[in-house]
Amino acid sequence: MSEPAHDNSTDDVGSVPAFFREHSEFLDSLTQVADSAGNVESWTQDSAPASEQELLRGLCKTLDRYQEQPTCLDPYLERIIGQLMAVVREYVYAYHDSMDRQLPIPISTTRLDGVFELLYTLCKVRGYKIILQFFPHAVADVEPVFATLWRYSADLGTTGWPARYVLLIWLSLLAMVPFDIESIDSGIVEQPMIKDVDSNTTQPLIDRWITQGKLYLTRSGCEMEGAAVMLARLLSRKDAAARQPQFIEWAAREISDAARPAITGGSSGGLQIESVLRINGALRVLCHLFSAMDSAESLAPQIPRLLDIFQLDAFGQNAVTRKLVAKAVQRLALLMLPAAPVAASRVHARPSVRANLDNYAAPVSASVEGPTSAGEDPAPDTEIPEDVECFVGILLQKLHDKDTIVRWSAAKGIGRVSERLPLALAREIVSAVGGILREETLVVDKGTIDVSMTTEHSWHGALLCLAELSRRGMLHPRALREVVPWVVRGLTYEIQRGDYSVGANVRDAACYVMWSLARIPNPSSRQVFAEMSTEMATALISVAVFDRESNVRRAASAAFQEHVGRQSAFPHGIAVLQLADFFSVGIMRNAYVVTSRKVAEFEEYRHPLLHHLCSVTIYHWDLRTRELAVKALRELAPLSPAYVRASLLPGIVANVSSPFLAVRHGAITATGAIAEAISGELLANTDAVKLVTAVADRVPARYIEDFGASLTLAALASYMGNLSRAKWCAGGDDTQRRFFGLFEMALTTCKDVDGIVHDFTAFVDAYGLTSEQHSCVEEHTRVARSGTSCQSFVLAMGALSGQRELDLLSSAVSNGATVEIRRNAAAALGQLCARSRASGNLSATWEQSAVAALSRGLEDRSVDNRGDVGSWVRKQSLQSLAGVFGSDCSVLQRLLSRDADLAVRLLGQVLHSMTEKIDKLRAAAGRLLELLLCEQRVDRDSDSDIDQALDSTLEQLRQLILIHSSHSSDFSWADPEAAFARIVPALSVSDKRLRRPLFEGLVLTGSTEPLGKFAVSAVAAYAETLPETGATVEDGAQPEWGVDGIVAELTRLLLTDRRTSKLINPALSVADQLVEQGALLAAAPVSWIPLYRATQRVAFKLRAPHRLELCLKLYSSLALMSEELAGLAVGSLLAHMAHPVLRIRQTAADHLFAVVCIHGAIDADSDSDDIGRILAETEWVQDSASVKDARARLTALVRRHLPQSQD
What we know:
This protein is mainly α and 1207 residues long. The termini are far apart.
């Protein structure tokens, strides 16, 4: 086959390749494999060459990527399979010929395992039916392939199964050759090669073929499937027809014998795996055989026994077995039924679009039953065997099975069987399937169907079956009118079981039924669809936007699309479909809030969507679904306020006292949402006002005190917040006290109080608080315990405004008992400032106090078993500060005038936060820094009371940080590499009060992984841009910032109190990394001695192994900077080889070996070999006399070459 003319470009649709993109490389590799595997001389080897195996693994991996788009391979299959089968065919012929010649070295059965595995992969990806089309199938191939399979059957181990599978399916193709099997039987194959068979027995080829197939029917995996296909095709031949009854008798006996332990009760735990494999193999071959046979006449004697076998209870433990039973039953029933001609009522749509349009445009007869009358039944008098009724009964029973694969197989079987039955019997089956939906259901008032007592398995199976019947045109108009209401009920089927629900598969199957109804080929159904189009359309669109499961929403959208495209009966079909397409309904929030609002613009869908929301979705068991439903209700209610007030609101309010928590919570929150969304409509109606305002009183006290109280109180808080925002200030002081009491209970009981505090803020704005209530809130924050009540009320204080609240929150930011209290205090402080500024009550003094308190929050470094919990406080403080500075562009001006030290300290803390290892925290700090430097206005007049030097420093920061990389439009402070590269140049700022916090943050982050590499790399790159020399740090003068400044800062950090400082270890690590990278080579030699002395001070009398190892590592790095440092470092390393901690001795020896013997930091002349030998051969982790002697000899050798000052 010539290769299709494709170029190497890719025509992708999304992420799915439009064709076989790797075809060139694949075919080149395949040619190499064929050349290597086709080497006849290599067939005596046990395995393929390594290069061939590598190529085969790559080819299989390439094919696996096309598992979901296998048709992309179709243009190349003939060439691929042709090359592989040419090798395999030559191989099997070579083995067949060798049986006469008796070669001294036999052909190996494992040499072509890789080629067979590649062929199996092709079958797995594309399907064996397609792959077999390109297999050779000459008559001469039969015996060689059979002989090769016979040889592979000698060892049925865990390996070689791909080869056996390929040979089996190849034989299944060869079994269809149009020649008598006896005419090609040469008798060359010897019987003793098969295990457990009498070697003295002589059988014809076809019998040996059957025996060989039976051998594989008990094998697990694909070998069983290959053997079943092979046997079915072989036994369906005319020259094998006489063997069919005998084989079916054997299969029935095999099933009975394997199932006997479970039938007789001898196996309490169910069937053993060996028995299950025997049963599945026999059933699988029966399925294929019944499908391949032309008539059931030869099966008449076996049908009663097969019927008994299909009804055995022993199959209940294995889903695959039950599925095979369903498949065998339906195929046997089809075999017993005549292939009746297609009736006019079942004819599919014509291939011409114009003919279809003309057909649908034709008037419908007055009697919609006309096209399906008995007069058009193609075979009304056909005699149906009685056994078919039993088989249909078995399939109907399988619709109740607990496994989906069984129900699905049974549903397809019923659809296929019904096609061949007379219309009267087919209608009985439709009625029986519909009866399954009516089982254990209760039709209550107004036609509502209660399904709480039903099982989801039965409904799922029945709906699948209805879909199959519908696709085949078996639902006549009267049946449609009966079935559609039940299918519509199935679209909302859901039963709660504990903390989860069942029914998603039922809803999905109902969408499938709706989809199949659109494809009914019977034109007489048009009038039924015209009558029920609005009901079906609104039901589908409600599920498409309001179902919890994305697959169900998409299935409903697909069904809606099918009806729009085929029936054209849905109102505004195309316009609605464009709004609720596959992608729009895929995201739950978008479907609920956005898509539903757009669809509700159409009047036909508005009320059904609102009704679905208020009767189903707001009472859903899932909290997130209820919350989204309430948001959707808030969007949809203004579109039809009168309908919501008159028809929906009374039913919702009636459920606020429901004993079911989900129903109660949904009703309360929905009432509040409606009260806010259509407040104008409700306030104009006295009855509506009474309904809404009485909600809090209608909730029994036990529901806000017992189990579930937190959720009920949260719902009441949402309800009260909605009323407050809508200015429902009815009821006076009594209502205000009642609402405050509920808010107090909610803040005390609930854990997640962010939404409650938001609603409490609205309540305070609408009703205000009395002095006693102010004191109550403050008292809850002073409770001497660290519970959720205290932290909740601290957060709620942000809704207040006053000096007492400001002082309390300012103290709680740094002195709160728990990190949650400190975090909430920071958040509340920001809210208090925002509210005070909005009301005009925020003075400069309050502003300064709040900034000072939040500045203290940036220093919270608390750590517990949850990790760096102090980051919660720091992040919230940064966000609150951003709110303070973002709401007024002159805050920094006032702060610099009143307390310049506070402003500088805050800037230093923000710069320090810019180096945090937490991305979100660093992003919050970046936002605040941009506010301070870009959006805050600072007066630069000469008469301003702001220090000009400080003003210059701010301008310098602005130039270094922001303008430095202003061209980066996609820059994000959350990106560590980009953030560190931008912030590091700020080290050049002249004010050390800003430089030092930034450098300390870089050092802290530089010692951690994985962000440390970005920080150190940024500092190293920045150091290359600094001046090569700088003033010394010993003369007391202010040094000019340069590389010497970096060394001086590292020295300063090492000289901090080693008992309390958390910067010493990071400083040692970062200093070592910078020295190793050569970033500090430009520093003046005199600046290195203070760093060494500081390191020596840290290591003095130190027993902490980790810190001491860092010191030793830094010694070895400093030794390479100068001869003087080399002598000092070597002396220190020698001293530590006598350290009490044995681990430190070994570490010091390793570093000393690197310094002296590898890098040659000191000139040891001829002693270097002796020094290296002593360091390498001595076990320094031992404390023995030999080690002490080695240390003494090593010290003498090394000190001989040290400078005199180090001797």
